[in-house]
Amino acid sequence: MAKSTKGEQSKNKLIKCAAKLFLINGYNATGINEILELAELPKGSFYFHFSSKKSLAIEVSNYYSEKLNEWILNVSQDKKWDEFINQLVGKMIKQAEDKKHFGCPLAVVGIEIAFSEPDISQYYYKSMKDLIGMFSNIFEFSGVPSNKLDTISHKAFAIYEGYLLYYRVSKDVDILKRMRKDLIEISEEYK
């Protein structure tokens, strides 16, 4: 694997720091100076890599999607839906108990910018559709009939995101436990 240049490292650091701040504080409440401060980089480095905060937000969407996809693929490998959900949500519960879980980054940022920044929100929407597709693949592996995959995947996604937003507002870990229960039960409806 080729070693990344100093410029690539700076760009990646800006994306990673912005991703963290957008998830915790929101897109609109995060300023470029805060991102630079967390990244410990000078202002010029931001504008060398990004023409605007919007262009950074698009890169952050790609970063969120890549990280979420890696995590889902890793957790779901050779697992049926129930086992996948137990492991996935179990990790979320652990993070929440440690005060390190802030909800789904795609939904958190996507909802905030849905109407104010529609040119950016389309990237978050695409990532959400990809997640639904991943759910569909896991349900298929779990033996759900193909004619029911679209319905169950969308329903599971709605339950998943709804509970994660509910958790974000309440910070009540029991919400995540309810999510796990409901996501496991949904697969029984379609067998």
TrEMBL record:
<keyword id="KW-0805">Transcription regulation</keyword>
<dbReference type="GO" id="GO:0003677">
    <property type="term" value="F:DNA binding"/>
</dbReference>
<protein>
    <submittedName>
        <fullName>Transcriptional regulator, TetR family</fullName>
    </submittedName>
</protein>
<feature type="DNA-binding region" description="H-T-H motif">
    <location>
        <begin position="31"/>
        <end position="50"/>
    </location>
</feature>
<dbReference type="Pfam" id="PF00440">
    <property type="entry name" value="TetR_N"/>
</dbReference>
<dbReference type="InterPro" id="IPR054156">
    <property type="entry name" value="YxaF_TetR_C"/>
</dbReference>
<dbReference type="InterPro" id="IPR009057">
    <property type="entry name" value="Homeodomain-like_sf"/>
</dbReference>
<dbReference type="Pfam" id="PF21993">
    <property type="entry name" value="TetR_C_13_2"/>
</dbReference>
<keyword id="KW-0238">DNA-binding</keyword>
<feature type="domain" description="HTH tetR-type">
    <location>
        <begin position="8"/>
        <end position="68"/>
    </location>
</feature>
<dbReference type="InterPro" id="IPR036271">
    <property type="entry name" value="Tet_transcr_reg_TetR-rel_C_sf"/>
</dbReference>
<dbReference type="InterPro" id="IPR001647">
    <property type="entry name" value="HTH_TetR"/>
</dbReference>
<keyword id="KW-0804">Transcription</keyword>
